[in-house]
Every structure is written in structure tokens, then in C-alpha cells.
Amino acid sequence: MGYQVKAQHQALPLKSVFRIARGAKTQADVVVVTLSDGEHTGWAEAVPYARYQESVQSVLTQIEQVAEKLTHFDGTVSAANGLIDTLPAGAARNALDCALWDLQAKQQGKSVADMLSLKEPVPCITAQTLSIDSPKAMAEAAKALGHPPMIKVKLDNQDIVTKMLAIHQASPDSKFIVDANEGWSIHDLKACCDSLKELNVVLIEQPLPAGDDAELLNYSSPIPLCADESCHTREELEYLKNRYDVVNIKLDKTGGLTEAFLLAQEAQSMGFEIMLGCMVGSSLAMAPISLLTDCAKFVDLDGPLLIKTDVKNGFDIIEGIMQPLNSALWGSANSRVTV
């Protein structure tokens, strides 16, 4: 049984400029993959990320290399998954892995949640993200969100407390996740942590550069620290112990739902809390990881709110509350490919 694989680049314009510590962008460049057995078709979306030496072209090339083998493949689904797993953890493997899960749901006539023995998702709080700007502009952006329960704030190491004070005053009842995207030093972290805790900051994401965080071993942070760029798969968990309290699981880092599911299980067994995160993309990119919300203390899947036009049957996110995955989008016998 061979598989037909198609992959294409889509440029998704953003509602506004999105700035983090390492740069800014005005569109999300994603790769959409369809995987067909001739009768059923699964699909998925991945986001190539330059921080991990990925581009749209490099991801398309990786997918093409596996697609050639899948075209002439004559084996079990498990063996097909093994073929996909020969790719490194990243966007290409994510797209193929999640498309295969969607295809299996249609072949077997049941949901991916049932296949993994997961609880059916229920509405949950998702953080809504503010990109880096002036204190005044960030406060105005926070106010415009309408006081959601959780706001994620992108911050470099400039005016950290000043910006958070302005944001907190604009949305005093919200809790905050601060994401430094590797942009701080240990001095920055120590200098601002106590003040940030007074401003309802409940989590700090990746303050120091990945691989350059040994100083966290000797630091008892008053705010839990989350590993993002430092955590891709289960292989990093032992290294992360005593440095971080939380791991941020993203499909484009793990290489798909298969590894994300296993990473969540092993991380919890080692005492880590779970955060579910995303790159900037459509609801299709969020769909597989949304099945794991039951195990997560923090959810940050607001990518669809940052783009101008979402896919059909996308997530409803209203006042910071994210509704469960629509079965017509992905992961069930009823999901429909709308490329």
C-alpha cells in the first residue's frame, strides 16, 4: 500500500507585526501536508523555524525525501511511522507524523483521542500573546484583550519591570507568563524576578540561552521557570532537571504528536509541569497538541488569533477560553481536508 504525499508552502499574513527578543515578522510561513492511501486523506500543518536552522525549502526537501519512500511503501502503519521517524525532530517530521495520525483516524473510524486513550478535551484557558513594544503600546494591547485570565508577554532585556508594570496596571486581574526567548542573562533574571512575582507573573519562559543555563542550577527562582528552546524531546529531560520546573511541548520541536505524547508522560513522571505551546500558525497546527490539554498546567495555543484568516472549522477562543477541537478540522473520521 503506497501513500501519496503532497506538501505546499502557505504564507499566512498576521494581524499586526509580531516581535520577540530575536526579531519580528509580518506573516507566518507554514507547510501543509496531505497524506493519502487512495481512499482516505489525512493532513497537518507545520511551521519551519529559523532558530532551529529550518526554512520552508529545507522542510519541503525533507518531506520529499520521505515521500518518495512512502509512495512505494508496502507495510504496516507502524512501519510507516518508523520511516517518518528517520527524520530529525522538527517541522518536517511533525507534518508527516500528524498527517498520518489524521489518516489513521479516518481509516479506523475513530478519533485520535480514542486511539491514544486520552480524555476528550474540555474548554481551557489559553494564554494570549503580547509582542514586544513600548510600555505604553503593550499596556494598550493588554487592555484591548479584555482582561483575559492569562496573558503571555514577550520581553527582551530592556525595561523588563517597567513594561510589566504598565501591562499589569492595564489588566490587573490577569496572570502573566513572561517569555524571554533566550534574551536575558542570569543577572537580568535575578534583578527582576521578585518584582515580577508581585505583578502576577506566574511563569518565566526560557530566560537564558539554551545550553548556556548552568547558572540556573544554583538559583532558586521565586517564579517557576519553563524550558522552551532547551526542550525538544525526551532526550533533554535529564539535563533539564534542577534547572527548570516546567517544559514547553511544541509539535514543531518534538517532531509530531507521537513524541509529544511520550514527552508529556515522561516529563510528568520526572516531576515537571507541562506547558503546551505553538509557533505562529493556523488552527490546523494547534489541533494535534490540543488533545493533551488535560495534562497541562499552562496552555499557550493562541496562534490562530495572531493571523488574519484562520482555516475552516478552527478553534473558538473567546475571552481567553479555548473551546475543544472541532472534529471536522482534524483527528477524527469526520475531519475534512480543505487545502
List keywords for this structure.
single chain; 339 residues; alpha/beta; Enolase-like, domain 1; TIM Barrel; 2 domains; three-stranded antiparallel sheet; 14 strands; 33% helix; globular
What do these coordinates show?
Its EC number is 5.1.1.-. Keywords: Isomerase, Magnesium, Metal-binding. InterPro entries: DgoD-like, Dipeptide_epimerase, Enolase-like_C_sf, Enolase-like_N, Enolase_C-like, Mandel_Rmase/mucon_lact_enz_CS, Mandelate_racemase_C, Mandelate_racemase_N_dom. This is Dipeptide epimerase. The strands form three sheets. An eight-stranded parallel beta sheet has the order 5-6-7-8-9-10-11-12. It has helices at residues 56-71, 77-84, 91-108, 112-115, 135-144, 160-170, 186-198, 237-240, 251-254, 257-269, 283-290, 303-306; strands spanning 4-20, 23-36, 41-46, 124-125, 128-130, 150-154, 175-179, 201-205, 225-227, 246-249, 273-276, 298-299, 317-318, 321-322. Helix 5 (135-144) runs parallel beside helix 6. The mean pLDDT is 96. The protein has 339 residues and is α/β, with parallel strands linked by helices. It has two domains: 4-109, Enolase-like, N-terminal domain (Enolase-like, domain 1, 2-Layer Sandwich), CATH 3.30.390.10; 124-322, Alpha-Beta Barrel (TIM Barrel). The chain starts with a strand and ends in a 17-residue tail after the last strand. The chain is built from twelve helices and 14 strands.
